[in-house]
Specification:
The protein is α/β, with parallel strands linked by helices. It is built from nine helices and 16 strands. Helix content is 25%, strand content 28%. β15 and β16 form a beta hairpin. α5 runs parallel beside α7. The longest helix has 20 residues. The radius of gyration is 25 Å and the shape is elongated. It starts with a strand and ends in a 6-residue tail after the last strand.
């Protein structure tokens, strides 16, 4: 849920601070915002110029009047804001309490209306959404064993790296419901993002399916496919595009463009980069009742701390279970002792 944190400070107090102390406060505030952004909790933030730079605008009877200065004279003045996306009001208050300026003033925390609409009587915009909402979601679809292995689910020759001998472990669990759900997933894609190995495997098989009734094949064969590779010089499958330069930066640019969700299928090596740079918005994870013990894992060396919320779950008759998770921000921790109140705190408070 989104919250607006309005930071009020007494400007005379700030002006009376030594220059070194003001600089330190500014540096601490920027560092805290960087931490929130890394955790996926910050949508936007900015300080404001002093209140004497403000102009107040009123419209009465069709006439516009302006007054130099703020709308209201108060002891503490609005000095800046943070727009955050967290689980609930408790999380929002906890984040506000750790903002450095809270030591010198007050922070008002208010939830945003989820539909972005204000009262029509106020003449507010009916379709307000911030930039983050407009960004395309990057969605990872993965097939995992109970012990987290994602390597070669579809066949013995799919990915024998590291001498992997269990290729095809998923196939016995196929059923009609599984295929139906997978087809609906694939139809949602506005584009696909693939690593080299997955791209080459898909490019060798999906173009062979030309039946218009095969909706998965139609989507994969016609919609944009972006390929991350350090070795390929060209990609020839219809509507394929080779990403050049810094992969994380290029993917961030793709997410900022208009369009439907960007789906990642397979691509275990590429996934580590996506995890490392916190680029994944949604996981669609199929978990199968299988233990393997060795093989490539979804959450490998690129994994960084973060939290997700479960938004959907389904089970098919063969025993496979689908979990859909959406990003919820940074980790929270807790401490519980018998006879005492449970304490919840964020990552910044751990071991301090």
């Amino acid at each position: 849920m989104k919250y607006l944190c309005l930071v009020y400070v007494e400007e005379t107090t700030l002006h009376a601070m030594p220059q070194s102390e003001r600089v330190a406060l500014s540096d601490q505030s920027m560092a805290y915002c960087d931490e929130l952004q890394k955790n996926g909790q910050l949508i936007g933030a900015s300080p404001l110029h002093p209140v004497e730079t403000a102009t107040t605008v009123r419209v009465r009877g069709g006439k516009v009047s302006t007054i130099d200065g703020p709308f209201a004279e108060t002891k503490e003045q609005l000095g800046g804001y943070l727009l955050i996306d967290v689980r609930d009001m408790n999380d929002a208050v906890r984040i506000a309490s750790k903002f450095p300026a809270a030591q010198y003033g007050s922070i008002e925390v208010r939830p945003l209306k989820e539909n972005g609409c204000a009262s029509p009587a106020l003449g507010a915009c009916e379709n307000f959404t911030e930039e983050k909402t407009r960004m395309r979601k990057l969605v990872v679809g993965a097939f995992l064993t109970l012990d987290g292995v994602m390597q070669a689910p579809g066949g013995p020759d799919e990915d024998p790296d590291g001498g992997f001998q269990h290729g095809g472990w998923l196939v016995p669990y196929f059923d009609e419901k599984f295929v139906e759900i997978m087809t609906e997933w694939t139809k949602r894609a506005g584009a696909f993002l693939l690593g080299r190995k997955t791209y080459e495997m898909f490019a060798a098989s999906w173009p062979k399916s030309t039946d218009p009734a095969d909706e998965s094949a139609t989507a994969l064969n016609t919609r944009p496919k972006f390929v991350a590779s350090r070795t390929l010089d060209a990609v020839n499958w219809n509507n394929s595009h080779l990403l050049k330069g810094d992969v994380a930066e290029e993917i961030a640019k793709l997410k900022a463009q208009e369009g439907g969700e960007i789906q990642v299928h397979g691509s275990s090596d590429l996934l580590q980069t996506l995890l490392k740079y916190n680029l994944v918005d949604t996981f669609r994870i199929w978990q199968f009742p299988v233990l393997i013990g060795t093989g490539k894992r979804l959450f490998g060396e690129g994994t960084i701390p973060g939290s997700f919320r479960l938004v959907e779950t389904q089970q098919i008759e063969t025993g496979a279970v689908l979990h859909v998770y959406e990003r919820a921000g940074g980790l929270t921790y807790g401490e519980v002792e018998v006879g005492q109140e449970t304490v919840i705190f964020d990552s910044g408070a751990v071991h301090t």
